[in-house]
Write a structure and sequence with these properties.
Layout (H helix, E strand, L loop, with lengths): L4 E6 L7 H12 L4 E6 L7 H11 L8 E5 L10 E6 L2 E6 L11 E4 L13 H14 L25 E4 L2 E11 L5 E6 L10 E4 L5 E2 L12 E5 L4 E6 L11 E7 L1
Parallel strand pairs: 1-2, 1-3, 3-5
Antiparallel strand pairs: 4-5, 4-6, 7-8, 8-9, 8-14, 9-13, 10-11, 10-14, 12-13
């Protein structure tokens, strides 16, 4: 029998006991559960960065797993605590845009677990971790709390769309974040039917040129555009970091 899996993604770091306390909350609730540490090195309070990592990792989890995302500068405020059914998996965390909830998901406000009296700053341990453990172990989502129709949308922009103009297709997107290596990740997903050998970046001008297949295709310190492991267009510097920031416009052209 498969053991329930709870994946944790937080900005807690490892200097304190917070991660261990989250583990304990999961295992105290469901002793047979497995805990997967996705990352605890998110930049504190970086909601955009948390949303990007959550969106990337959730599809890699097995069906039935629960992903807890805690990057929560609003802990203890009126922001809701939510759990959602998402593509055969569970999402649990604060309603602040860090969860990759879509319009097709069922979302419920968490009321089955509440912080103990006097604890107002650790919903990860008190509410989210145990709720995720229960869902991964088979709890009916309807028992978590009432259904809600409106949630804060994901902070990850929608994927750019390709439009055909003459013999080419164009996608106009934006930088949505940077990873640990300084690679600028965009909201342009490059479909499998695109001939990557003919695709090229038009904007920003500093990255204008053809797509490459790897970082080593250019000299150290040179700029390079490629499709990253998430399927998104990335703008990088070989063994360096880009200066691009979220919101900068990116245009990709490819053969129709």
């Amino acid at each position: 029998m498969t053991r329930p899996l709870v994946a944790l993604l937080t900005d807690f770091g490892r200097a304190d006991s917070y991660v261990a306390e989250m583990h304990r909350a999961v295992l105290h609730t469901v002793p047979s559960a497995q805990v997967l540490d996705v990352s605890h090195d998110l930049t504190p309070y970086d909601l955009d960065g948390a949303a990007l990592v959550a969106e990337r990792v959730v599809g890699e989890l097995p069906e039935g797993a629960a992903l807890v995302v805690v990057c929560d500068p609003g802990v203890g405020t009126a922001r809701a605590r939510i759990a959602a059914s998402h593509q055969g998996r569970w999402l649990v965390g604060p309603d602040n845009g860090t969860l990759p909830v879509t319009a097709d998901d069922r979302v419920h406000r968490i009321e089955c677990r509440m912080p103990r009296e006097g604890v107002t700053t650790f919903d990860g341990r008190e509410v989210f971790a145990p709720t995720a453990a229960l869902l991964a172990a088979g709890l009916d989502l309807r028992l978590v709390g009432p259904r809600v129709r409106l949630t804060v949308p994901s902070r990850v922009p929608a994927d750019a769309t390709f439009e055909r103009v003459g013999p080419h297709r164009y996608a106009r997107g934006v930088v949505i974040g940077r990873d640990r290596y300084g690679n600028a990740v965009t909201n342009i997903r490059v479909p499998a039917d695109v001939d990557r050998a003919t695709a090229e970046v038009l904007e920003p001008e500093s990255f204008a040129g053809p797509l490459r297949t790897n970082y080593g295709a250019v000299p150290i310190g040179a700029r390079v555009a490629l499709v990253g492991s998430s399927g998104r267009l990335e703008l990088s510097v070989h063994r360096g970091a880009t200066a691009l920031v979220a919101g900068e416009e990116v245009v990709l052209r490819c053969d129709a």
